[in-house]
Amino acid sequence: MIQVFDTAPDGLQPAPKDPRMIAAGYQVSVREVNFGAVTDRESLMLAFLSGLALTQSFGRNWDALYDVLTDPDLRPARFALLMCDYAHFRNRHPSLAAPLETTLLDAQAEATRLGRQLWLLIEEADSDPNAW
After folding, report:
1. Which of 39, 80, 107, 126 has its CB 3.0 to 4.6 Å from that of 69, i.e. a possible disulfide?
2. Burial (Cβ within 10 Å: 0-12, 13-18, ≥19) of residue 91
3. Taking the alpha carbons of 68, 72, 73, 77 in that order, is the dihedral positive or negative?
4. Residue 81: closest CA among 110, 27, 48, 120
């Protein structure tokens, strides 16, 4: 069975079972962002502030998020963003999910261009891969 970390990051991907354990075996650093309590852009940015352990100086906008995901001084070369409860968030807030996904995919492309890897993994409580 091919694990997600056997291949280059490719868009938003379903998280494997026990993603933290598998990532450790591949020397991939993982940070988790929980979308369960996100109701608006401010709470979305707070979820990233908390999940990525950012300082209060984080700009809380799309450009600032892109910057923290692509800055080699802030992120390891092999990094996975584990997005919990993302499909439900996406269904509840499509107008927030669209610019978020653009930002995340742009950051992933920039990481690849710089010879780095940024996996965008979706972990759902119900583990329904068809949910997104």
Report:
1. 107
2. exposed
3. positive
4. 120
In a domain, 111, yes or no: yes
User: Which pLDDT score is estimated for 56?
Assistant: 87
* CATH number, residue 39: 3.30.370.10
Pair 68, 58: CB distance under 8 Å: yes
8 Å CB contact between 123 and 88: no
Q: How many domains does the chain have?
A: 1
Alpha-carbon distance of 47 to 68, in angstroms, equals 14
Structure tokens of 92? Answer: 């509840």
Cβ(79)–Cβ(117) below 8 Å: yes
Give me the residues of the chain with pLDDT under 50, please.
127-132
The residue with tokens 């995919």 is 105
Distance (Å, whole) CA 21 – CA 37: 25
Residue matched to tokens 């919990």 = 84
pTM: predicted TM-score of the whole model, two decimal places: 0.91
Residue 41 CA, distance from chain mean position:
16
